[in-house]
Specification:
5-stranded parallel β-sheet, HTH_AraC, 521 residues, 6-stranded mixed β-sheet, single chain, alpha/beta, 23 helices
């Protein structure tokens, strides 16, 4: 129901209009009545009508002035002018104000008023439809990446085909044919430290998606999707045609895509594609197969094409036992800042992991934990985006290169204990002498004869962290040594360091070291 406001200083005229037609039949209702332009302006703000029928010849503020003000407030409002005047210049001004109609009081009939209102209602519906479409398109545009990820999630559910097609249409994805081919692509993270920050990964996936969309032509209907698991997916929808080798066409497109990505972004990608499948119901299964095949190719150098089927692979899960000695050598080389020793140890780790066929997911997770310990020992905050990239690596060679680059970054960035100034050494000595106590900022400030607020500000300015974090880090360094070098229980170590509850100690340890005390030991 649309709302109408009647405006006229002639009271009988308003009563006449109110009874002239059946307003409800036209999907309108009279929401407000005003006898002056000033009062109409006030009521307009209060009732927000869609259509205003107003007299032109009113004192103080005439109908034309009123209409101009109303359109400033609500540009889509429909205006019907009602007047005794028939001079052309009034009509011309009404037209300039985009009035829907210009009715003469002495000649008005029910039919004329109904016709004018129908036109206004039709215009209102048209405007609302346009606004709704614009709003919908804006929402799709602003949230396109999120909606596409949701669409990809739906794609992995085998029993949601009708919903999938409906969601696709809203994103402009229409699969009109019965056959599909899928390709999955992964970033080669080994080149990241040279050209990009670790946190640039989402931007790169977005750029790849744009490059792929720009490459599309009328011959191939390809949908590009990106995923939070750091891969992108190309889906070809086609109708079999004897005159076209679809596998060769898709392979050619993917090869050109790799070249374009390297040309624009200077980064390599691994791309593997499926054989043709029929029916949307098989997409989820084929996608899982591609992911599994990609995981099984973790130790290979295959970067393009159809992956060979190797069946269910049995991985070795003895990560710590297999690599502990080699990793200890790597850590020693790291502590001694020996680049050659680091490179040699990493190469041996790479070869042994490949030879033993260690489980990729567990291996990358363990490597991430070990790198976090190195970051912690150099008082560096863990680079979460690096650890995400490391655990998403699709190839072991790239993961090893990524680790090598990060270890070198830690060596360059992390300060050694000898570089601490005298005041920090004094603070360290105090913490060391009160390890079993709960050391507060106030305690430390009093020891240094400083105002607590001043000490808090200056400490954070100098160290980049608050005092509480510093104390926890200092104690966790000692905890690491005790866990490795002594046979004391975790409870006893926690007690010695001033943590009365083991659960709290474990929580603090994992926060600053990246692994639990049990896993570290």
């Amino acid at each position: 129901m649309y709302k109408v406001m009647l405006v006229d200083d002639d009271v009988p005229m308003i009563k006449y209009l109110s009874k002239l037609i059946d307003w409800g039949n036209l999907q309108v209702e009279i929401a407000a009545v005003a006898h002056s332009g000033k009062r109409a302006l006030q009521l307009f703000r209060e009732t927000n009508p869609d259509i205003v029928i107003t007299d032109i010849g009113m004192p103080l503020m005439d109908g034309l002035e009123l209409a101009a003000e109303l359109q400033k407030i609500k540009p889509e409002v429909r205006i019907l002018f009602l007047t005794c005047h028939q001079e052309f210049h009034y009509a011309r001004k009404a037209v300039q104000l985009a009035a829907d109609d210009y009715l003469i009081k002495d000649e008005i009939t029910a039919e004329q008023l109904e016709e004018s209102l129908r036109k206004s209602v039709q215009d209102l519906k048209s405007v609302q439809n346009q606004l709704a479409e614009i709003s919908y398109k804006q929402e799709i545009f602003m949230n396109k990446d999120v909606l596409k990820r949701q669409f990809l999630k739906q794609l992995t559910l085998e029993d949601r085909h009708d919903d999938l097609l409906a969601s696709g249409k809203r994103l402009g994805i229409e699969w009109k044919h019965s056959h599909f081919m899928l390709a999955i692509g992964n970033l080669n993270y080994a080149s990241f430290p040279k050209r990009y920050r670790y946190k640039d990964e989402p931007i790169l996936l977005y750029a790849i998606s744009n490059i792929a969309e720009e490459m599309q032509n009328d011959n191939l209907a390809i949908t590009i999707l990106t995923d939070q698991e750091s891969y992108f997916l190309c889906i070809l929808n086609y109708q079999p045609n004897l005159s076209c080798n679809i596998v060769e066409c898709f392979s050619s497109f993917l090869g050109s895509l790799r070249e374009k990505i390297y040309s624009f972004l200077r980064i390599d990608i691994h791309v593997h594609y499926s054989l043709p499948i029929k029916g949307i119901s098989n997409i989820a299964k084929e996608l899982r197969s591609l992911k599994q095949g990609n995981r099984e190719a973790f130790y290979s150098d295959i970067s393009f094409g159809v992956l060979p089927s190797s069946g269910l692979k049995l991985w070795n899960h003895e990560i710590t036992v297999t690599l502990e000695e080699l990793w200890a050598r790597l850590v020693q080389a790291f502590k001694n800042s020996e680049d050659r020793g680091i490179t040699t140890a990493l190469e041996e780790i790479k070869e042994k992991a490949k030879h033993q066929q260690l489980d990729p997911v567990e291996l990358l997770g363990k490597c991430s934990q070990w790198i976090r310990v190195m970051e912690f020992e150099r008082d560096l905050k863990g680079e979460d985006s690096f650890h995400r990239c490391l655990q998403q690596c699709g190839r072991w060679d790239a993961a090893v290169e990524l680790m090598k680059s990060r270890i070198q970054e830690i060596m360059i960035s992390g300060p050694s204990s000898s570089e601490k100034n005298m005041k920090l050494k004094q603070i360290d000595r105090y913490i060391s002498e009160h390890l079993s106590e709960n050391i507060t900022l106030v305690d430390m400030a009093e020891t240094l004869f400083l105002n607590p607020s001043y000490f808090s500000r200056s400490f954070k300015l100098e160290t980049g962290m608050n005092f509480t974090d510093y104390v926890h880090r200092y104690k966790m360094n000692i905890a690491c040594k005790l866990l490795k070098e002594s046979m004391e229980s975790t409870e006893m170590i926690a007690f010695k360091l001033g943590y009365m509850e083991r659960t709290y100690f474990s929580k603090v340890f994992k926060k600053y070291v990246g692994v639990s005390p049990k896993d570290y030991r």
